[in-house]
Structure formats: structure tokens, C-alpha cells
Amino acid sequence: MKYSLPVDIDIDIEYIKMLFKQNYAHLFEQKDEYHSYRFIAIDIKEDVGLDDISDQLDSPFSVQRFFRTRANTNGPIHIDCNRATKERREWAINVPLFNCDNSYMEWFDHDDFGEFSWWPEAGFIKPPQDEMDDFELKIKPSERIILESPMLVETKSMHRVYNLDNPHDRIIYSIRGDNSITYEEIYERLANG
Ligand SMILES: [Fe+2]
User: Fold this and answer.
1) How far apart are CA 114 and CA 164, in angstroms?
2) Does the predicted TM-score (pTM) go above 0.90?
3) pLDDT digits (tens, 9 = 90+) for 70-107
4) Of the segments 80-89, 113-122, 159-168, which one has the largest average pLDDT value?
5) How far apart are CA 105 and CA 44, in angstroms?
6) Is the pLDDT of residue 113 over 80?
7) Distance 14 CA to ligand 1 centre (A)
8) How much is the pLDDT for 136?
9) CA 119, CA 151: separation in Å to the nearest integer?
10) What number of other Cβ atoms are within 10 A of residue 159's Cβ?
């Protein structure tokens, strides 16, 4: 697969699931956009062993988030960016937590929206709001995966969560890669390591 690769990382998924339920589920529900959202991100403050993962992948991680996609809804097509610098993010490691088996992560062979709108809270760029529906009907994915285990994912091309057929909110844990290593470099390293 061009845009994704399973990765063998030692991570305490049960602890992260517990953390979501105890400390974060209610934070999502308190957000203003909770009743209208398609996709919400919340940064994680607790130590979940990022230093260990950084050692395992020989790459420092600093940003970790929960992503929640609404039931029976597709997340918006977007490209990940650094919220501060607006630089595109090369890659991430995504880990399934809840209700990921009836959904896909999809990529599109496109990396230019032309005009785009900035979505600072999630750190995304996406098509302008009034063009979004047309845009999403026009382009077709070239790759899709079910997130069944931790995966390296490319985040600098257009992608989205397809969650239309899932009757539950889909929740993942995501750590954002170090941009001094390109997606292609980390892919090579992990595929051959
Ligand atoms: Fe993304």
C-alpha cells in the first residue's frame, strides 16, 4: 500500500482506552460543535509512553490526539498541518481504539485544493465550506484501509475517514510524526527494519 503500513509498536492500548473513557469522553461532549460535528480532535496531556515509542521508531513525538468521527458520517477530506507553522505534516501513527471495524481511512491522489480553508482546531486544510459537498462527490479514493492495528499513515495527501456505514462514533489515538523525516523515509525504515 502506498499511503499506509502496519507498524509493530509496543503500546498500552488498554490504558489509552481507559484514559479516553475516564478523562476525555466528556470533554468531547462538552464541545460546542459536538452536535454538529463530523470530526473532532482533542490533544492528550497524560504520559502514555511516548518516550518509548520515540525510542522504538527513532523519531521524537510531541503531539498526540484523540480523533472522533461521528457515527454514519464521513470525516471531511483534508490534509494535516502543523497548527503553529501551517506546514503540512508528513506522517502519523494511528491506533484503533473504539468502533474502527466498520470504517475506512481513505486517500486520494491529490494534494492541491486550489483555494482551501484552514481549520485551526484540528490543524487541517480542507476545501472551502461551500464547495465541500461538490468536491467530495467529484474525487474518488485510490487507497482505503480498515484500521485494525497501529499503522503508519501518510498525512500530506488528501485523506479522510469513511464512517458512513458505521452506527457508532469511531475513535482513534494518533501521534504525529517528526517532519524532519519524510513519509517516504519512515516508510522505508519501518518496512525494511
Ligand atoms: Fe488527517
Assistant:
1) 26
2) yes
3) 999 998 899 999 888 889 999 999 999 999 999 999 99
4) 159-168
5) 22
6) no
7) 23
8) 86
9) 24
10) 23
Residue 166's φ and ψ, nearest 5 degrees, are -100, 120
C-alpha cell at 6: 502496519
Expressed in angstroms, the distance from the first to the final Cα of the chain is 17
- Tell which residue, 105, 111, 80, 81, has the closest CA to residue 161: 105
User: How far, in Å, from the CA of 35 to the mean position of ligand 1?
Assistant: 21
CATH fit for domain 4-192, picks 1.10.230.10, 1.20.1440.230, 2.60.120.10, 2.60.120.40:
2.60.120.10
What are phi and psi for residue 87, nearest 5 degrees? Answer: -70, 140
Name the pLDDT band for 18 (thresholds 50, 70, 90). very high
Q: Cβ(178)–Cβ(60) under 8 Å?
A: yes
Looking at every residue in the chain, the average pLDDT score rounds to 90
Angle at CA 1, nearest 5°, toward 183 and 104?
95
Q: What is the whole-number distance in angstroms between the Cα of residue 51 and the centre of ligand 1?
A: 23
Ligand 1 centroid, distance to 103 Cα (angstroms):
15
Distance 9 CA to ligand 1 centre (A): 20
